[in-house]
Amino acid sequence: MGDHLVTRRRLAAAAAAAGATALARPAIAQGAPLRIGVMLPYSGTFAALGENITAAFEMHLAERGNRLGGRAVQIIRLDDESNPATAVQNVLRLVQRDRAEVLVGTVHSGVAMAMVQVARDRGVPLFIPNAGVGAATGQLCAPNIFRSSFTNWQPSYAAGFWLGRQGVRRAAWMTWDYAAGAEAGQGFREGLEAAGGQVVRELKLPFPETNFQPLLAQIPGLGVEAVGAFFAGGGAIQFVREYAAAGLKDRFPLTGSGFLTEGTLAGQGAAAEGMKTTLHYGDRLDTPRNTAFRAAFRARTGREADVYAVQGYDAAQMLAIGMEAVRGDLSAEREWVRAIRTARIDSPRGPMTLSPSHNPVQPMYLREARGGENVVIGTVIEALADPGTGCRMSA
Ligand code: PHB
After folding, report:
1. In a domain? residue 126
2. Got the DSSP string for 206-240?
3. Domain identity same for 232 and 297
4. How far is the CA of 107 from the centre of ligand 1 (A)?
5. What sign for the dihedral angle of Cα 100, 102, 106, 109?
6. Do 57 and 137 share a domain, yes or no?
7. Overall number of domains in the chain
8. Distance (Å, whole) CA 141 – CA 388
């Protein structure tokens, strides 16, 4: 923000000195590029997620000629390795050394907490394109923090609710032991209970470990009818394969938030076939918007789009809405915040609005893995909003 204000002032002064005040006007449009600090995992178990978020984020910028609100954009990428231990240092590097005016990130809930903290301390706009940590749009909500994805509670609540409606009364929950796994577990439990069932056991291992065998061995002895889980990325590929290889798939159907089979089906193969999960996106959402998005993503990357690509794309759409509203001048915070908060965002997932705490209000689809695609076969909840507990933010 600093630089372009300086530039504006300089241009205004030069214009005034020349007696040409009319020239001062377009200064913002000609100002310094908008520096966007993109902090995501490009290595480790979530690497593919970071790549798809980035590719789709950049795709939307390209659709706008790489200009937002009249300013050119410049992306500064940083690999956060999904490592909470180095997260604060990494965000500060983007803000201080690289003088990022906008932050975009990240995938991992623990790392996202560091971004939230810095965004709050310094008032830097933050767009979260994945991490579902509740506090970001709960107790720690702020005018300058927006999320284009979900809270961990949302898709898992839908999974538990759907499972209960199938008549399941006793289920186990398996996950990585960190914020996302715990919050998703809470959602799953609440959803299942709302539909008459209960979670009788939670099985956890440290993130991002994949030593699933000792936990899988316990499942037949638990007296459960089904298993819910939160894993994603490389870890989800391995988990779903081992679950099937252990002979559990047909005896204890495996479900959970759709991350379990999202962007992972090629690696999971037959092990995932027939798995039902819930998520705010699915491959066969048959709308012109989604079809066009998927074709453009495929043409640009040679890969299939997934929910992570959608969330990256929508983070760019949200930033663009804000930037256009203030013609590139992010110091007009009230105005750009209001523009995004009240927008109806034309997402590939369907038209999307935001809750008062800046989190998407969205449908939760039931999907079935079929032949390498997560095919939408129903809608569990039409429009699910996270309660945003603890968020107090004056409009
Ligand atoms: C998270 O840490 O919040 C997280 C990570 C990967 C996902 C979903 C949530 O796919």
Report:
1. yes
2. -TT----HHHHTTGGGS--SEEEEE--HHHHHHHH
3. no
4. 6
5. positive
6. yes
7. 2
8. 9
**Cα 231 to middle of ligand 1, angstroms:** 8
Q: Is 47 in the pocket of ligand 1 (CB under 6 A)?
A: no
Q: Is residue 234 part of a domain?
A: yes
Q: Summarize pLDDT for 110-165 with one digit per residue, the tens.
A: 999 999 999 999 999 999 999 999 999 999 999 999 999 999 999 999 999 999 99
**Domain contains 360:** no
Pairing label, strands 126-128, 71-79? unpaired
Q: Of 14-18, 151-155, 189-193, 375-379, which range is least confident?
A: 14-18
Instruction: Determine, yes or no, domain membership for 383.
Output: no
**Which of 108, 111, 150, 151 to probe ligand 1 with, by most ligand atoms within 8 A of CB?**
108
Between the CA of 333 and the centroid of ligand 1 the distance, in Å, is: 29
Side by side, the strands of the sheet bearing 198-205 are: 198-205, 170-176, 226-230, 254-256
**Residues 136 and 166 both lie in one domain:** no
| pLDDT tens, position by position, 198-218 | 999 999 999 999 999 999 999
Same domain, 138 and 120: yes
Specify the DSSP element, H or E, that contains 195. Answer: none
Between β-strands 226-230 and 254-256, what pairing exists: parallel, antiparallel or unpaired? Answer: parallel
The helix (run of H) or strand (run of E) holding residue 286 is none
| Residue-range definition of the domain harbouring residue 19 | 8-150+286-354
